[in-house]
Amino acid sequence: MSESQPPTPPSKENPPRDTSSPYELLGFGPEVVGASLSPEELKDAYRKLSKTHHPDLGGNAEAFKNLTEAYAKLSDPDTRREIDLELEAKRHISDNIDSIMDDDAPARPARRVAPRARASGETTTQQRRTYSVAIENGKEYLLKNETGEKLGEGYKQITDRGRFLVGVAESRRTPMEYLLDPKSGERLAGPYTQIRRNEQGDVIGTSQGRTGTSEEKLDVPEWTKN
Question: Domain residues of the chain, as ranges?
């Protein structure tokens, strides 16, 4: 199966399109893990494209409007988190389709995406790129590969942010994120409003409180199969 080509960077000849991904409008390819981009990287991309598409500088008004709306969405932590969760879910589906249709790797076992459990008490399992989960009563549990044993607590979603696992838990105001041990499922740090990797490659936990925003560098365990 042929590999998809990255999108052409936006320009005056190729203005940003109103796609479902604000990251694409800012010129980032589909392989980008949203949470790994820092606010500074997003701002730099927005400023660069603004100079190209601002109407006062000869750009396209509609393209500039789409660009501004995309940046506004990604600048809001809650909205950005929902976008990241949606893109992560789409990526899992795409990975499983590719594994089934990939003619270049016949020895690779096809992975099937199990539907989410609908009936109360029903449990389904789902094999993802680097880990497995059980889905029960709308919550995801990390699984031990050898035995299928559920590890740790249940979350709204468990996601691989690029060699580290994050469990997203529901709360009254906004979803909270926890850094998880991929081997035991235990919470290593959290809760945070967002966990991401910065430009230096460090994993950062961001908290928002009455006094403002604070950041903390997190220790990520060596990634091993559970």
Answer: 115-218
pLDDT digits (tens, 9 = 90+) for 106-143: 444 444 334 444 445 678 888 877 888 888 888 899 99
pLDDT tens-digit readout, 65-78? 888 888 888 888 77
pLDDT of residue 113: 39
User: What pLDDT is stored for residue 178 in this prediction?
Assistant: 94
Instruction: State the pTM of this model.
Output: 0.51
Angstrom CA distances, 49 to 22, 55, 87, 179, stand at 13, 12, 23, 34
Which residue do the tokens 């389709």 mark?
97
Please provide the DSSP assignment of the chain as one string: -PPPPPPPPP-SSSPPP--S-HHHHTT--TT--GGGS-HHHHHHHHHHHHHHH-GGGT--HHHHHHHHHHHHHHHSHHHHHHHHHHHHHHHHHHHHHHHHH-TT-TTSPP--PPPPP-STT-EEEEE-SS-EEEEETTEEEEE-TTT--EEEEEESEEEESSSSEEEEE--SSS-EEEEE-TTT--EEEEEESEEEE-TTS-EEEEEEETTEEEEEEEPPPPP---
Which amino acid is located at 169 in the chain?
Answer: A
Displacement of CA 211 from its chain's centroid (Å): 27
Q: Map tokens 């660009």 to a residue.
A: 67
- 154-179 pLDDT per residue, tens: 998 898 887 889 999 987 777 899 99
Residues 6+ apart with CB under 8 A from 39: 75
